[in-house]
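QA checklist item 7 of 12: single-chain prediction sanity check.
[x] sequence parsed
[x] length recorded as 114
[x] structure emitted
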Amino acid sequence: VQLQASGGGLVQPGGSLRLSCAASGSIFNIYAMGWYRQAPGKQRESVAGIFSGGTTNIADSVKGRFTISRDNAKNTVYLQMNSLKPEDTAVYYCRFRGPTYDYWGQGTLVTVSS
């Protein structure tokens, strides 16, 4: 199984982007999907997660600006990012966890700059 993240790019401050992450291959019982990010010189941090029951968890730094959602039929997770700030610049990674697996995507770069 591979996770393919997409949707990153260059955006001006205040702009929006929507990231997507889809799993290829057969994958079952995904109990958590999440987005993480790593800025240059910093540790990777959790941005948002969504669990099998629909519960979401959003980092305080992006609360009110980012929204996570999932399409179970497509094994895809999305991250809608609004009101982007320069400090949101990072490589964004997706992650799918299940009872016997823990998959990471390859990362997609988001650059917020004027």
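[x] summary fact logged: The mean pLDDT is 95.
[ ] second reviewer sign-off
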